[in-house]
Write a sequence for this structure.
């Protein structure tokens, strides 16, 4: 019975979170395209920084840090 209770609570919590995400995405005030663009840019910067030691560059994200001195 304990496993069934936990499974039920997890299912309900997942449904609530899913509904909240859906409500934010379809809201009139949502800025979904801007958020997706920002996330893509951040991912690109992270990948650039991660491969910089192998590729021989410093990466764009490191040079943008104020006071870095590189």
């Amino acid at each position: 019975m304990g496993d069934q209770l936990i499974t039920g609570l997890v299912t309900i919590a997942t449904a609530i979170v899913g509904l909240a995400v859906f409500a934010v995405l379809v809201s009139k005030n949502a800025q979904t395209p801007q958020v997706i663009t920002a996330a893509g840019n951040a991912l690109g910067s992270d990948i650039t920084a991660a491969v910089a030691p192998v590729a021989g560059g410093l990466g764009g994200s490191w040079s943008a840090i104020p006071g870095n001195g590189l």
